[in-house]
Every structure is written in C-alpha cells, then in structure tokens.
Amino acid sequence: MSEGMGIGIDLGTANLLVYVEKKGIIFNEPSVVAFDYESGKIVAAGADAHQMIGKAHSKISVVKPLKSGVISDMHAAKELLTYVLKKIENITEKEMGAATVVICCPSEVTRIERDVMKDLAKNMGTTDVFVEEEIKAGALGAGIDIFKAKGVMVVDIGGGSTDVGVLSFGDIVLSKTIRKAGSYVDAELIKQIKKNQKVEIGELTAERCKMDLSDLRESAPVVVNRYAGRDIVIGIPKYVDVSTEDMRDIILPTYEEIVKLIATVLKDTPPELSADIFQNGILLTGGGALIRGVEEFISNRIQVPVRVASNPLTCVAEGTKFLLKNRGNYLVNPLQL
Ligand SMILES: Nc1ncnc2c1ncn2[C@@H]1O[C@H](COP(=O)(O)OP(=O)(O)OP(=O)(O)O)[C@@H](O)[C@H]1O
Ligand SMILES: [Mg+2]
Question: 119: pLDDT confidence band, cut at 50, 70 and 90?
Fold first, then answer.
C-alpha cells in the first residue's frame, strides 16, 4: 500500500471533482476541455472550456471526454486530469507515481470501460489505483454508515447516467444503471423546441432552461421564461417562450423511467434489505436530484420515503475522502496495472 498522497476523482459526464488529501476538493468544474487544433495544446479546462461550448471558433475544439457516464475520449480525459493535477495543483510526476488514486465510476461498467480506467491511471503515471462505485462513495459522502448490516438504497441521477444501488455491509448487493439523466433531458428539450417552435437552442441554454423551469410538483406555479436561439427556417436569431408545463412534459418520461428502474431494483432486493429500505428511505444524489419536487414524485409512486443528500453534487468526491483515510481497510482490490 502506497504511503503517498491520496487523490479521489469523480470524473462525471457533466462535472469533474478532484479531492486531494489534506487539501479537500481542489477542483469542481464541468468535465470539458478545449484544445488548440494546430498545436494540440489545452487552451482552457473546466468552467472556462464549458463557456466555449457552441461558441468557439474553428481553431479550437471543445471536447467532453465522457458520454453517458463513461470515458469516450481517452486522450481528452487524460489531458484534462493531468492539467488539473499537474498545472493547477502542481503535483509532480514523482508525487503522482507514489499516490493512491480512487476513481469513481457507474456501478455497471463493462470490462472494456474498466480497461479504459486502467489506461487512464497508467497514463497519469500512478500505479496504486482503485475503482469504486459512485453510489458507494456518494452514500459515504452523504454521511451514511454503509458498513452496518442495514440495507441502504442510493439513486444517483447524474449528467450521463442514473444509477440505482442497494448497499449492505459496505458493498453493493445489487444495482442497475440507465444511460439517461441530465444531459438526456437537455437533448430532449432541444429536440422538442426544434420540432414544435422551429427554433434551435444551444446546449448551454437548454441546461439553463432546465434548471430554471423544472418542477415535478403538479401544483407548481406556472412560470414562462424567454430564451434565445436560431430560427431553423430562416436562420435568424429568435426568442422562444418555455413554460414550467412544457418543461414538465419533457422531464416526466425520464423521471418515470427512473421510478421504473427503482421499482425493478426493489423487486429483486432480498426481503430483509427491503424492510430496511422501507424504514430508512431512499437517498438521492447527483445533480438530477436538484429538480424541484423530485422527493415527492418518487415517494408518491414507490411508497417509500425519499430524501435528497445535503451535498448531491459533491458527495461522491467527499466519499473518496473517507475511503482514502481508511485505505488499509476499505481499498482492498487495486486495479492490476
Ligand atoms: N439545480 C438543478 N436542477 C436541475 N438539474 C441540475 C441542477 N444542477 C445540476 N443539474 C444537472 O445535473 C447534472 C450534473 O450532475 P452531476 O454533476 O451529478 O453529474 P455527473 O456526475 O457529472 O454525471 P454522471 O455521474 O452521470 O457521469 C447536469 O445534467 C446538470 O444539468
Ligand atoms: Mg456522477
């Protein structure tokens, strides 16, 4: 076991969070990186690169290294992480080599995706690497003692995927993932506005519209906001009006699907653990848990109490702090590099 520094990485589809032992969360920004086409050098990372989405000129390519919860652009993922750790945090090659790194991932990763994680770690120059499930780290970061003989259900609604898992004695008993979450809702919104109002809005506008107007409560007050886009017929800039009701129609199918996923996992959960979940309720994490009325929406349909973590966007990274602190006990299956 390495005695070097501990680094926890929550490389999400939407956001990258990096935790460094004794320092805390040193990076919490969008998982986006912008390269200069000719030199291949990074021109911006995180929030600065995110602002360039849909706006950069042709000499800059803006890349999101993850799609649907998994790394789809290995080079960009490595460059982004290396930039954050070495340029922003000044961690040397030697320190990287001696560090213990925990990378969080969705619960249903394929072998190929696991191999991608290995490659990523190798590329970063680390050898002591562990891959832990996001829902496990998220529950720990939300302050839940997952090591007791009590069933705990965690639902992580992120940018690229929704993960439902049942934990007991510190590990995942069963879990299911769908590759639908926040980004899917944004894409649906763009599609619907294009179809119904013949206006194309950008990715950043769609996300802002979702955050402004999403409300799953039937009694939610009706609000109408105006967003700028481009008329797809004549090509000129045009405003579109979007209401909370329009937004509800767009988010409902995804959240209904999430409810179905939870129901499927509950159906397969052993009865003793089901009883614990019924008593303790379901914990929601991830940015998608910030949609108004989500607790009532899920609990009304499943008839189980639901609560949102107090830190839904940072709990996974905060959970790595606990895992690294107790690395001798809880980090026992290193990646064979
Ligand atoms: N207040 C909010 N209301 C609605 N959605 C939100 C809010 N805040 C963040 N989100 C959405 O949450 C998503 C990001 O959540 P999170 O950071 O948990 O995802 P991620 O960990 O990067 O993705 P994944 O785990 O799926 O790879 C984005 O789609 C974002 O639009
Ligand atoms: Mg996540």
Answer: confident
Pocket probe for ligand 1: among 134, 210, 251, the residue whose CB has the most ligand atoms within 8 Å is 210
Return the percentage of the chain with pLDDT > 90, whole number.
77
**Does 335 score more than 80 pLDDT?**
no
Nearest CA to ligand 1 atom 12: 287
Tens-place pLDDT, residues 258-302: 999 999 999 999 999 999 999 999 999 999 999 999 999 999 999
Q: Which atom of ligand 1 is nearest to the CA of 106?
A: 25
Query: Of 120, 116, 37, which is closest to residue 80 (Cα–Cα)?
Result: 120
Closest CA to ligand 1's atom 29? 182
Mutate to test the pocket of ligand 1, among 162, 290, 314, 316 (most ligand atoms within 8 A of CB): 290
All domains of the chain, ordered by start, with CATH?
Answer: 6-137+315-330 (3.30.420.40), 145-180+254-308 (3.30.420.40), 182-250 (3.90.640.10)
Q: If you measure from the C-alpha of residue 183 to the centroid of ligand 1, how many angstroms do you get, rounded to a whole number?
A: 8
CA distance 156 to 202: 26
Residue range 9-35, pLDDT digits in tens: 999 999 999 999 999 999 999 999 999
Task: State the average pLDDT for the chain.
Answer: 93
